[in-house]
Write a structure and sequence with these properties.
Blueprint (H helix, E strand, L loop, with lengths): L2 E6 L4 H4 L2 H11 L1 E8 L2 H13 L3 E5 L11 H10 L5 E10 L7 H18 L3 E6 L2 H10 L7 E3 L6 H9 L3 E4 L9 H7 L7 E3 L22 H12 L3 H16 L4
Parallel strand pairs: 1-2, 2-3, 3-4, 4-5, 5-6, 6-7, 7-8
Bound molecules: zinc ion.
Amino acid sequence: MELIDTHAHLTFEELESQAEDVIARSIEAGVVGWVTIGTDREQMERAVALADRFENMWAAAGIHPHYAKDAAAGDVDYLRQLAADRKIVAIGECGLDFHYNFSAQDMQRELFRAQLKIAAEAGLPVVVHTRNAFDESMSILDEFAGQLKDVVIHCYGGDAEQTELVLSRGYHISFTGIITFKKSDELREVAKLVPLDRMMVETDCPYISPTPVRNQRPCEPAMLVHTAKTLAELKGVSLDEFSQEVTATSQRFFNIQL
Ligand SMILES: [Zn+2]
């Protein structure tokens, strides 16, 4: 089995400080590729540096909506330059978070558009974070219709109607360990609607350890297997078949090769 953790924050201190061990445990578990995510200027720099150290590790660079208020104009320029780095395979995570509202909504919108523009210019796919802002995220993405290489809605939590809309746009959907939680019956029904050639899996580590290791912190890429197992069952395929399909989807999406 060869899975790719398509959304991991491996520059999180507790993970980065033991990166060799984290990666060894991951490979042991069958999770053999990683996209580490930069969320502000410092994190994107570190993400690229970390990805340079490991084979089959790539980086996405973006400014998380939480940090919109701290982002300087120079950070967007920096992202534009970084987009040309050989290890950068996507722009993000970027988007809107109207749940926490750590940054003013107008700032979030402006920064989201700026990053979509960079993705369009660079021909890179986009990793979207959206929370309590589904309709508006979709309508901002619609402004860039035909210009974006590809889009994934990460840490997916949409309902059936929203899922239909996401799929109708040709976007991808990425599930975290939330799919394994007892309370996630509705999300499990939604997952059945998503074809494997549009589905990806992620830990979003260090957050969201899946059941049955939910109490273990930090979450790390090796734990992705539990998420994959749950999704394989829902889709009625073996874990091997599931991993083959979603890994092919992930490689196509990020234009990467294990
Ligand atoms: Zn994330």
